[in-house]
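INTERNAL AUDIT FORM
Audit reference: QA-55
Scope: verify that the stored structure record matches its stored sequence.
Auditor: D.O.
Record contents follow.
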Amino acid sequence: MSYISMNLLNLSLDDAAAVRLLIVLNIILISIVMLWFIIRILVPLIIKFLAWRKEKAAFAETVTPDSGETDSDTGAAIATALYLYFNEMHDEESDVITVKRVSKTYSPWSSKLYSMRNLR
């Protein structure tokens, strides 16, 4: 019965047709995997690389090489900053700590009366 229905629908598969079908299905599967790889992995990497290159180009435009000549004011400012950095002057403080006692030790903030709940 099934042989007759296959002949009627013309669906008889021989060995060559089955091999061609498997090859086509494998090509489709491989192309889907390659598209997923391109979309999920390569596109974000390309976007990051282009952003990095754009940032690097913008940074290169903002930083211009100096001709090597500095005026005396700039040199004096640099020398003063280095002198103050390496010779920091600190106030000398005594190592004595004084604790003053307060005559009124009660404070409503530390009272247990206000922190207890009346659960009745």
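Auditor finding: record pair retrieved intact. The chain has a mean pLDDT of 76.
Action required: none
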